[in-house]
Design brief:
The protein has about 350 residues and is mainly beta. About 5% of the residues lie in helices and about 65% in strands. It has two helices and 15 strands. The strands form three sheets. Strands 2-5-6-7-8-9-10-11-13-14 form a ten-stranded antiparallel barrel. The protein has a two-stranded antiparallel ribbon with strand order 1-15.
């Protein structure tokens, strides 16, 4: 007999995890190489008729050494293109959702598998390339790609020791503005852009009892600042050394489709389960740049970057997409009869 309506929040394992945040850290050593080329603005004359004290420039930007060396200045160039490649080796932490898919198998008793987000350690290798273009050397357009492989291990109370492999492809585009700080050893820039990450996570326990395969896509917005300080330059400015520091923040959304299989006689196959995660974090990067002027005019240069990068990510793990849509529709409550 219906005597009243009671509104109560649905208490499931995934709703219990709502609002819980998992944090990951990745520290990487960086080794990069690049080339910068400029086109003269007016004619084929390589030098102007005056001298300037050349100031350092940020990555990909035209500039000179930081020792205040007086050199004949080339005519103002309109077009600049730079190409660089990076290799990064790192160590950090990883998190992965366990049990969200297999709990939905009808042959699994309710409450037997409690979904959890398990942390673990990982080793990572990344390599990539960036192309930058500028007309006028104030505004730059950067396009980058990076591919990474991470191997990790964690301990799950459900399935014991679980090994992970994560592959990621980063596609990035930025608009960068270089501040006019000529005449000093400093140069600085600000940039904003977007990042799309296409990834795959594979996991299995050491006995082959449990396997997992996830498809992951991240859509992120990025905002960053960078600064360069010129430490040393030869008298003819053919070779110079600069210190570079960059900081960046990102915010976005992760779409993750998880599928799990447990081998108990007849395999228990969990249905594809879509997870709905928000993420944000910061990236810090510090490098030493050594740059060599290839030709007499300085319009062609080669450089090498060596340094460290740290990435800190916060992920709100474990809220299933279907449940979030239902909560939006019903205002976060489910109605029961009593």
């Amino acid at each position: 007999m219906k005597n009243k309506w009671i509104q109560t929040e649905k208490r499931t394992a995934s709703s219990f995890l709502r609002g819980r945040r998992k944090r990951t850290i990745l520290v990487q050593a960086i080794l990069g190489f690049g080339l910068i080329g400029n086109a003269l603005a007016d004619d084929s004359s390589l030098f102007g008729d005056h001298k300037v004290s050349l100031a350092p420039a940020p990555p990909g930007a035209e500039g000179g050494g930081g020792q205040g060396t007086d050199l004949p200045a080339p005519k103002v160039t309109h077009n600049e293109i730079s190409v660089s490649a990076d290799y990064m080796q790192g160590y950090g932490t990883i998190t992965a959702p366990i049990g969200f898919s297999i709990q939905k198998n009808p042959d699994v008793p309710p409450g037997l598998v409690i979904p959890a987000v398990e942390p673990g350690d990982r080793d990572s290798t990344f390599y990539g390339a960036t192309i930058s273009y500028s007309r006028g050397q104030s505004w730059y357009f950067d396009v980058g790609y990076a591919h990474g492989i991470s191997d990790g291990v964690s301990s799950s109370p459900i399935f014991g020791t679980v090994n992970y492999r994560v592959t990621e492809d980063y596609y990035q585009t930025y608009l960068r503005y270089v501040f006019p700080l000529r005449g000093t050893r400093f140069s600085a820039y600000a940039r904003a852009g977007f990042t799309y990450v296409d990834g795959e996570l594979k996991a299995d326990d050491v006995s082959g009892f449990y396997t997992q395969k996830d498809e992951v896509q991240d859509i992120l917005g990025n905002v960053g600042l960078g600064m360069t300080y010129a430490v040393y330059a030869t008298p003819n400015n053919r070779f110079r050394v600069s210190l570079q520091a960059e900081a960046e923040g990102f915010l976005g959304h992760r779409y993750q489709n998880s599928a799990e299989v447990v081998q108990i006689g007849t395999p228990l196959v969990g249905p594809d389960t879509q997870l709905d995660n928000d993420l944000f974090g910061t990236i810090g990067r510090g490098t030493v740049r050594m740059q060599l002027r290839i030709n007499r005019s300085g319009l062609a240069r080669a450089f090498t970057d060596v340094g460290l990068q740290g990435k800190y990510t916060v992920v709100s793990e474990g809220l299933e997409w279907e449940e979030r849509q239902r909560k939006k529709k019903h205002g976060g409550f489910k109605i029961f009869e009593k």
